[in-house]
Automatic annotation (TrEMBL):
Cross-referenced InterPro entries: Endo/exonu/phosph_ase_sf, Endo/exonuclease/phosphatase, Sph/SMPD2-like
Lineage: Eukaryota, Metazoa, Chordata, Craniata, Vertebrata
Membrane association type: Multi-pass membrane protein
Name of this chain's protein: sphingomyelin phosphodiesterase
Pfam family, any one: Exo_endo_phos
Amino acid sequence: MEGEPTLRLRIFDLNCWAIRYLSKRRRERMWLIGDKLRQEGFDLVLLQEVWSEQDYSDLRVKLAGCYPFSHYFRSGVIGSGLCVFSRFPILDTLLYQYSLNGYPYMLQHGDWFCGKSVGLSLGVTALLLSLSVQLHAEYCREKDAYLPHRLVQAWELAQFIRHTSKAADVVLLGGDLNMHPEDAGIRLLRGWTGLRDAFAEATRFEGCKNGCTLVPDNCFTDKSELLPFPLGIRIDYILYKAISSFTVKCEELKTTTGPAPGTDIPFSDHEAVMATLHIQRQGQPVGATLGTADLALVDVVAEARTEVGVGLRAAQRQRYSAGRMAVLALLLLLLQAVAALGTVAGLGTEQPFPKLSFCLLALLALGVLVLATGLHVFHTMEVKMLHGTEDQMWMALRALQERP
């Protein structure tokens, strides 16, 4: 980089939708993704939802010639699904798992089990700090029960970037953020970190209309979820910013459109995002910036804090309900214990219930007690995380309002 006025960096980002046993034609699609990456020769590849380590290992072997450096980020029960491939050496890696990530009892969604995270890799090229990320899915926009969790994740991601990027020259973030461009979480992330959207900044664009990455024409997408959005939605992003004595410009942005070349299937249920960035050294270092400290940022932090507060009150209600259920189950067990002791001591002429029914009722009460106690503990932790984030946002909001 020292001997060149400009570095041209090509990035590939894709949510691979590679869930073992569940994703359609997973093995075939992963092979096609590997072919695409080997043919195109990108500089940096950021992948999400590579849930099988075997898929990652197969990709690593296949791409060893053109991407000699790679890393797989492990977290949660089934893994984060995040991995990165690079032409340049990876100096260091770090995984941060969000404090809130859905609910363990929502088995049909499963986000809690995968441990949604942000994977950071520090590259030697212009001290490039690259992040592969995925936030909690939306599932239902009209009744989005996960909005507070996703806002907490966006806030933690923004804080993570601010505190880890101080030694870097360029920050690059790619991933499935599960938020529309105008959503509060995206505006909070961009405003608080100063990250720029490659789609909005690109000199040239080629691909799906409006840069959408989840489109109705894709044979793997759930068409019912996209009924309000006939053109699709844009939830996959490449964001970037220069921190020290560098500038970054997006020369070109592309998305895939439809099936992979020569096949009848697309690479994933998401479209891939491909950006070409120009990184250039300037004369004087400009230092790190907080972001745009204006009324728009104040408004978005206030809006996000309000939504987190709504989630906090909902979590407090759920904690109260779970605690009350646990207390009732415990009282029922105590009453049964007293009745059983009375029968053993001969205080009663006969057992009030048939023995089998008595045992089944005791088992049921014990099961409810264990489940309710577990839910009470979980929602107590949720309340603390939401309350902590609300306090952090209040401090940030006050600091922004007091700035000249």
